[in-house]
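TODO from last week: model Cupin domain-containing protein.
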Amino acid sequence: MNIEPAIPTTKNPPEQFAGDVWLDPIALPHEEGQRMVVATVRFAPGARTAWHSHGRGQYLRVTDGIGRFGTRDGKIIEVHAGQTIYTPPGEEHFHSAPENSYMQHIAMLEGADDPAETTIWLEHITEDEYRGNATTAD
């Protein structure tokens, strides 16, 4: 057993994120056959991901603020600190912070058999998609 070395915070790339979004890895695979990836992700007000999907799905635990998570059908779910949202394999979605506050979540996912399919990045969301009609998760 060992304490993991600290990995510096990185700012996520503008090809996949709009606004300021920072990533702090928590757990990455070490051994053959391991797939778990866990990271803390912080979004500045109004920041968002591009559309994307995950080959094996993803869990997101909001730890601060309110997360806004959208799907291609135009639905946006607002998730509050302490709540977890699950996106199934292949579901195209985005994550974002509201315009007036930061949001932080812990992202948990498994790597796909082909690493290129773990996360498939698509186009940026539009302002209309970002604004959508939000519902609150129970």
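Done. The mean pLDDT is 93.
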